[in-house]
Structure formats: structure tokens, C-alpha cells
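pls design
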């Protein structure tokens, strides 16, 4: 059985909710990632959301806001989704498909231990699994 732990990327970086979006963009650049989990202020174990590079562009910059004056916490909306490290790959795919998300934090013992992205799926799944996932995630964007 392939699990979330088997396919995730480790070394996921947090950004505190009070940090600005320009800082988030710098962290994404430095770590070569397109998303950061957002932690409650002072509580790195509590995820309040995820921000993506696309969020920064579409919800901040394109709306005429200054990324040095908007915080990561202000951009988070909705309930953060995550998956347990022991979850079977089929459960991972279902979670991502049903919520139409492209990145999924992996949690173990209430702590973030990694992230699953499209690249992780591409490296670890069959062409048929990838095609089915992509069809469901991208079909109504």
C-alpha cells in the first residue's frame, strides 16, 4: 500500500500568519516552492491555511494591494485541508479531487511533516491515475 508519507516532499516551510506577502514570496523563491502553510501566530503546530504564489498575484497584486502591507493570514480563506501520513494514496487522490486542490499538507501526530504536490503525484503514480486526477481537479476551473 502506497501512503501519503511515501510520496510527500519533506522539509515544508511555514509562514506565520502575521508575515507579509512580500516575505511569503521571498520564502517561496528561496525554497523553490509555490505554496506555504500558514501558521497561527506563535503556534507553528497549528495550520490556519495555505497561500500560493497564485493567491499572492490574483488576490493581492492584481487587486491593487501592496504585498508588503497584506499579511499571509489575511489571504487565507476556508478550512485548511490536510491528510494523515498513513493515508492510502487513493484517499489522498480523493481528498485532492473532491476539494479541487493541487497541494496537500501531510500531518503526523498533529505536526506538519510534508506536502504533496502535483510533482509528487507525477513522480509516483501511473499515467492512468494522473490522468484521472487531473481530469477531476481541472475540469471545472
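designed seq:
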Amino acid at each position: 500500500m502506497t501512503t501519503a508519507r511515501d510520496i510527500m516532499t519533506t522539509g515544508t516551510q511555514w509562514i506565520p500568519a502575521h508575515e507579509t506577502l512580500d516575505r511569503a514570496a521571498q520564502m517561496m523563491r528561496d525554497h523553490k516552492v509555490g505554496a506555504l502553510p500558514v501558521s497561527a501566530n506563535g503556534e507553528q503546530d497549528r495550520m490556519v491555511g495555505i497561500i500560493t504564489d497564485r493567491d499572492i498575484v490574483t488576490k493581492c497584486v492584481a487587486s491593487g494591494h501592496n504585498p508588503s502591507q497584506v499579511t499571509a493570514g489575511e489571504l487565507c480563506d476556508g478550512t485548511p485541508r490536510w491528510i494523515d501520513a498513513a493515508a492510502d494514496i487513493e484517499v489522498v487522490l480523493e481528498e485532492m479531487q473532491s476539494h479541487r486542490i493541487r497541494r496537500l499538507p501531510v500531518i503526523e501526530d498533529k505536526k506538519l511533516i510534508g506536502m504533496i504536490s502535483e510533482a509528487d503525484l507525477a513522480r509516483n503514480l501511473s499515467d492512468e491515475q494522473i490522468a484521472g486526477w487531473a481530469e477531476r481537479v481541472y475540469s471545472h476551473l
